[in-house]
């Protein structure tokens, strides 16, 4: 029996102009952007549609922008009869997945995501931490090199069998980049991010976020969500809460997440939101499954035409 999995993108999928075409075409999608602006008292449409890029790339803006777009598209697809059997989100995308699964309502989650962005932005002064993508080196070798670097240098994302992201202190990552290059990595690239996400340096954000999460109503999910920190299927609310807190300092176990969804019978994936990052990762994990994007009008018309 064919099953549909919705995947929700995280930071890095944003682009100036995101959502504008959909806002103009679908009143249901426009409604989400309009509501989000009022809830946050933030000029969200200008940030998404016009930029500048600097404003959109500020973590505290990026996160609500991506979340709003994903939630709006998710709602629209379901109204057209395209409903997921299972969901997952990459990093920030996990919050979008939880709204899709009925665990946290849109308004509560939007405020939570905004505060998550602020907590992450403030966890460490700008410029002290960074992240780098490592392509074409065995994960055990990457772990070994990271463990021998002086300072914080940790595995942040396991995106594909060939792409791992490391995170930590700027000097430690610089040393690791040099050593990974020497060890034969095909490519090691420092990422333009505002902090060392998914590392122990995010610990200060945990305390702040824990308080916020404890004040948000989190229900049992209506459909299973595969969570980043443990790469397991979760529906129970206290497990969801635990994973959201663990997620800030844990690796995003994306390869295991996708493999589990495929084992559970998902053979059609829809990337719900901005960009095509997750479609690219999926192709490198398993080419046998289908994946659709939804970032613009043409994409959505294709999804409606083939899946509804």
**Amino-to-carboxy terminus distance:** 16 Å
- Name of the CATH class of the largest domain: Alpha Beta
CATH architecture of the largest domain: 3-Layer(aba) Sandwich
Question: Spans with pLDDT under 50 lasting ≥5 residues?
Answer: none
Helix percentage range: 40-55%
Pattern of helices and strands:
EHHHHHEHHEHEEHEHEEHEHEHEH
CATH topology name of the largest domain: Malonyl-Coenzyme A Acyl Carrier Protein, domain 2
**Mean of pLDDT:** 96
Note the total helix count: 14
Can you tell me about this structure?
The chain has 308 residues and is α/β, with parallel strands linked by helices. It has two domains: 3-123 and 200-307, Malonyl-Coenzyme A Acyl Carrier Protein, domain 2; 129-190, Alpha-Beta Plaits, CATH 3.30.70.250. It contains 14 helices and eleven strands. The protein has a six-stranded mixed sheet with strand order 8-7-2-1-10-11, sandwiched between helices. A five-stranded mixed sheet has the order 6-3-5-4-9. The longest helix is centred in the first third of the chain and has 21 residues, at 59-79.
Which properties best describe this structure?
alpha/beta; five-stranded mixed β-sheet; 308 residues; Malonyl-Coenzyme A Acyl Carrier Protein, domain 2; 11 strands; single chain; 2 domains
């Amino acid at each position: 029996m064919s099953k549909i999995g919705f995947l929700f993108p995280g930071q890095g999928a944003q682009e100036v102009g995101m959502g504008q075409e959909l806002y103009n075409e679908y009143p249901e999608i426009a409604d989400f952007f309009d509501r989000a602006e009022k809830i946050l008292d933030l000029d969200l449409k200008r940030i998404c549609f016009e930029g500048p890029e600097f404003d959109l790339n500020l973590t505290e803006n990026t996160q609500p922008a991506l979340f709003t777009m994903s939630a709006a598209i998710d709602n629209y697809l379901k109204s057209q009869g395209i409903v997921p059997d299972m969901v997952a989100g990459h990093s920030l995308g996990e919050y979008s997945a939880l709204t899709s699964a009925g665990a946290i309502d849109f308004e509560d989650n939007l405020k939570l995501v905004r505060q998550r962005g602020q907590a992450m932005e403030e966890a460490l002064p700008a410029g002290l931490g960074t992240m780098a993508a490592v392509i074409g080196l065995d994960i055990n070798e990457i772990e070994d090199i990271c463990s021998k670097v002086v300072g914080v240098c940790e595995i942040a994302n396991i995106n594909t069998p060939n792409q791992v992201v490391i995170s930590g202190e700027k000097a430690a990552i610089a040393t690791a980049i040099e050593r990974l290059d020497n060890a034969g990595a095909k490519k090691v690239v420092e990422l333009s991010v505002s902090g060392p996400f998914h590392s122990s340096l995010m610990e200060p954000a945990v305390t702040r976020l824990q308080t916020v999460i404890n004040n948000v109503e989190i229900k049992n999910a209506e459909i299973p969500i595969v969570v980043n920190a443990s790469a397991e299927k979760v529906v129970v609310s206290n497990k969801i809460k635990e994973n959201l807190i663990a997620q800030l300092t844990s690796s995003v176990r994306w390869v295991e997440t996708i493999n589990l969804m495929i084992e559970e019978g998902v053979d059609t994936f829809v990337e719900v939101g901005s960009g095509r990052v997750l479609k690219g990762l999926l192709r490198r994990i398993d080419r046998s499954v289908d994946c659709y994007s939804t970032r613009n009008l043409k994409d959505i018309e294709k999804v409606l035409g083939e899946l509804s």
